[in-house]
Design goal:
The complex is a heterodimer of chains A (287) and B (337). With 287 residues, chain A is mostly helical. Chain A has twelve helices and two strands. Chain A has a single domain, classed as ABC transporter involved in vitamin B12 uptake, BtuC (Orthogonal Bundle), CATH 1.10.3470. Chain A has a two-stranded antiparallel ribbon. In chain A, strand 1 (128-131) and strand 2 (134-137) form a beta hairpin. Chain B is built from 13 helices and no strands. Classes of the chains: A mainly alpha (287), B mainly alpha (337).
Chain lengths: 287, 337
Amino acid sequence: MPDFTPFLVSGLATAATYVLSAVGIVVLYRASGVVNFSQGALGALAAFVSWSIVEHGGPEPVAWCAGVFVSTALAFLYGRALAPRLAFSDPVMRAVATLSVALILLGFMGYVWGELPRRLRLPTDTMSFELIGVRVTATRAVAFALAVLATVAVMVFLARSRLGLQMRALANNRDLSALLGVRVLRADGYAWVISGGLAGVSGILLADLQRLSGQTLTFAVIPAISAAVIGRFSSLPATVAGGVAIGACEALLTPVPVVGPFRTAVPFVFAVAALLWMQRRFSFVYR
Amino acid sequence: MTDQTLAYSPLLDTNRVRLKWVAAALVALGTVYLLPDVLSNYWLRTFISSTALAIGSLSVSLLFAQLGMVSLAQFALLGVGGWFALRISHGFGVPFEVALLTGGIAAAAFGLIVGLPALRMRGLYLAIITLMMAGAIQVLISAFGFPDGGTGMLGKSTGARIMMARPYLAQTDEAYFRYAMVVLAMCYGVVFVHMRGRPGRAWAMIRRSEVCALSGGVHIVAYKVWAFTLSGFLAGIAGGLLAGGVGQLDGSAFPASQSIMLFALTIVGGAFSWIGPIIAGLMLRAFPALLNDFHVDGNIATIVFGAGLLHALMTAPRGIAGQIQDAAGAFRKRFVR
């Protein structure tokens, strides 16, 4: 029986990055009805930008801020300039359009940075403390804390602020909210900003915890989307629980002999199980 | 006067249709006979892959154009089909055609089992589940690798890799290209038979309105499942054809991003027209090869495809094929009476 505790610790940190990304996806979907498949690619871009600035001798805090800023700005630009043109098409088509953003970013990152094995180093990697007999690096603790902080902040924001109220109204009924004077594009824009910022933070952390690769980080969106499916794209607590469960399961399966190599199929299993659970009563969704 | 034009118009119409089909058949025959001889070795292989991927794209467009279903796992299913085709071919030494069919059936079954929970839900969930499926299959394939003539369940050889046996009729690259084009034509035939028959009518009704279809007595789930199975079968055939063309498959060549690319290019090529999948197949393999000829980074192709998808979604929902048809229509209006 292998010792699972170190795997649990690293799993919870990875889970935290999934949660950050998934919270962004859920907030965006609730406000604007777009499932953002490019969440991972935005995070990857943020990580690459930070890495480049550090490589060229820039100060690290500036590099992180620049990375998050780039992903936020890009998300905002897409949300403001391109997404409204698809506002009246199918939800599927709006989701597929974000895939094209992912493809463009994937090609861009492959062109500029290539697929060399890299890792983004954060200064918190060298700091660590003991917790129940396991050494925990500060990066992992920071990731976990940021995920908790972001989730709580977003929940409070949605529940208390005026903009949050407008976003919830939009989630309920877009046409009625527009009629009542909610500035749809403005609320949408803020949702894209929140989601892009969370994507950037999540991407930078994941580039440190795993590795800095365009493909890997872009498809880190899969566990995040899976967590959002568990939360039915509406419930933040369920999304967080889903993200934590997926990250923890992935990590805990690492030392298990037979299933170990297949641990990255965990998000898929979770999402299918969630879908089956959701449709346990037979019901058609009419369009 | 009006009666006369009414009487004449069908005659004129059939005439034109006949001419069009004769021209199409001539072009097709010309392509089958002449194209393999004029191509260099490298381009011949590229076109073989393009033909196989045109079948893959046909499987995407079948789902998308007939039912509006978005499947992002078709390229992964191609890998599944290729895996089973290679396994059967190496394991039992069966003829190529049997291996091809086995690959198709295996991919259909695989796609069906995994897609079933999502098929009863709205399109968005199907897209999400199939994207995850593509990720999961990528993991499976990179863990197992493709069979290459070894023993055991996985058929991994430790020594030299053995090439997949090609069909008896098509041992050379030229012959195999012709063979692949014939398979492509047969796949088109299968799809057209479906579209003209009962399933096509049911799909059209479901696409228009599920409520309508239900009250019309159409078994919605059964017909959706049938479309999904058929499309998985086509993807499997494409995978087997790809495996036969190269002789082996590379475990790292089936990432989830390829599935997304296949879907994107099917939209860009034009999912609603028969020529769209062929354009998509050419873009997926011949366009990067062309860039390679000019020493341009292959990542540029990815950027172009992404931008193309965005453009197609916003302004040209019928893709390049639709634009070609519009241009041809405008041309005919102007110059042909």
